[in-house]
Write a structure and sequence with these properties.
Length: 287
Amino acid sequence: MSPTPATEDRGPTGSAASFPKKKMSRRQKAKLSRGIQYGILIVIAVVIAFVADWPTLVDTFGRLDVAIGMFPDVITKALKNTIVFTFLGFVLGLAMAIILALMRLSSIGVYRWLSFTYIEFFRGLPALVVFLVMGFGLPVAFPGFALPQLITIMIALALVGSAYMAETIRAGIQAVPKGQVEAARSLGMSSTRAMITIVLPQAMRIILPPLTNELILLTKDSSLAYILGSSVDGRELAALARAEIVNTANLTPFIVIAVCYLVITIPLSYLSRVLERKYGSSEPGGK
């Protein structure tokens, strides 16, 4: 009797042949997922394009004559004032933040408690409340006490920004290896000199990207200065937009000042990314 073969080839249509289904690779799945997402976005954009009332939108937010009427004041006065307010508030806030961060790291308990209370208090308050207190609360509490508008805005921005920057600086100081301080002390440096000449310069490299982000936030917070009122020459972007909206009964000024804010914040965002790539992954004290 002839031996039975172990396998039998019944051809491509035979039931003995088994062909496993081919699975999609991870790259193919990712490509398919991206295609679906792009398709959904395109559908949403098309729906918006057909449903939106474009003539009304253009008449409400895009009147060219209203936008042109804001120049050159929107640049020579409003944009300039916004930059000045932000810069002064940032500089004062940074100086306060360094002091607060050092107090937070102090070995003296009272300093740590005062710094902690200040930081938590101003981080918990909305910036609007700080502006209202500085602009209206202090003159009521202390009759005859009135600061110039520039000083009021600068202090309000500094109070808000310093609380956030203090925590950033504290984290940067703690990121510097303790060996740096020990080496400086072994050379005869005092703690203060070691902090100023060794620790802070290295910490500043670490905290530059988040400080740039804080500058962007202060730029936007400066828009709250409009609640204090101002002369024509003292208006910043938000105050000018509010006045123009009242005069023209049109919302185009909002679009104009939005573009002005982007002119400030987009370069700062790019600078933050550059600094983060340059210093973000570097080790403190490294080459």
